[in-house]
Amino acid sequence: MSGSAIFMMIVGILIIWGGLAASIANAVAKSRNR
Question: What is the C-alpha to C-alpha distance for residues 10 and 8, in angstroms, rounded to an integer?
Fold first, then answer.
């Protein structure tokens, strides 16, 4: 694999996990407000 392909894979994984972490944190914050 070329370096750019590996870089894009890492960026994609970070975006996916970042979205999951953000949605979990958002759900926790909403439940605490209640």
Answer: 5
State how far the Cα of 20 lies from the Cα of 4, in Å rounded to an integer: 24
Encoded tokens for 15 = 């975006």
Specify the long-range contacts of residues 13-21, CB closer than 8 Å, at least 24 apart. none
- Segment 12-34, tens digit of pLDDT: 999 999 999 999 999 999 898 87
Residue bearing tokens 């909403």: 30
CA distance 22 to 16: 10
Q: Find where tokens 């953000």 sit.
A: 22
